[in-house]
Fold:
Amino acid sequence: MKKLPFLFVLLFLVSCSQNVNGILSSKNTVIMEYASESSKPSLRLSVFVESQGDARRYKTMKLYNLQENYEWTVENPVMFEVNQISYCGYPDFIVPSGELIPQGAYQITFINANDDENTSTFALDYDSSLAGYTTQQARDFFLTKNAENYVSIYDANDQIIFFDVKNEKVQTEKDIWLNFRESQYFYDIWLTQDRSLMCIMPKQQIKRGDTDE
Structure:
């Protein structure tokens, strides 16, 4: 599916980690994503930091897992602002097929235009059995966690026309069609209260013949 940059905002509603060398806090989220109802999820790691300085000066981001010796390097990391706070990071840290995202201690290093380095650390802990869950098992899991259920709706030009917590206007496919006639498809998205785990369910096309009045 397309990347969902607007979801980044959700990840910054809860902060963690410490203030180290100009990095106020780091936010990390394991993202599960299903291609279809019959597939197992792909997993990736999203890591962003809240910067005390100008995040636009960062040219390189390095992420290192201290237990498994995994290392990722990102040139020109993603940068944006929320409520006049600068954020910098990357939403798509992945591992080779068949492997799981390593848990344990991580070190984040940002290098700016002057080759100065800012470093921070965080610990990643998640239920690795999620990688084997069916979509229904994932839904049941997130319900037990009192996770928030969002829906994102798109038009024929792949532009988002609605994104919010699921409510009476968008409970079913028929509801979506009746309230958003320009809608073409949508995603169900689950997000835990602490923002540490997100699940993107398979893309669902709006079937107008079945949903019209």
